Amino acid sequence: MEFRIAVDPLNGFIHCVLDGNLDLGIASQALRQASRLAREQGCGVLYDVRRVSVRGSKGDLYKFAHAAGGEDIKHGRTAIVCHEEKDKERWQFFVLVAQNAGVEVRLFDSGPDAAEWLAGGRKP
Known about the structure:
By secondary structure, the protein is an alpha/beta fold. It contains 4 helices and 5 strands.
């Protein structure tokens, strides 16, 4: 698994793209780096996971999502863009657990819709 993080100055958020089979260690590293940048920039994060394959158990995904509520990771809004058909049920589960841990996160099928929500536009 690999990831790329960039500041999107046009839309005013951090953009983190993840690729490959979900590796919770690498994904946690991406989450921490993107969250740090988001706190520094005072903005939200868009995580694009459309090219990620989730093969772990729901228990592993639960631990990862619950950790996203940790104080060192929290920042403004979080948008996750997933593939409409691939692993969507698992990402819905991740979002539910993260929301219960106190993260303001929403799941999207479209990058532009996620960017609009991050910018304070309509809710999904």
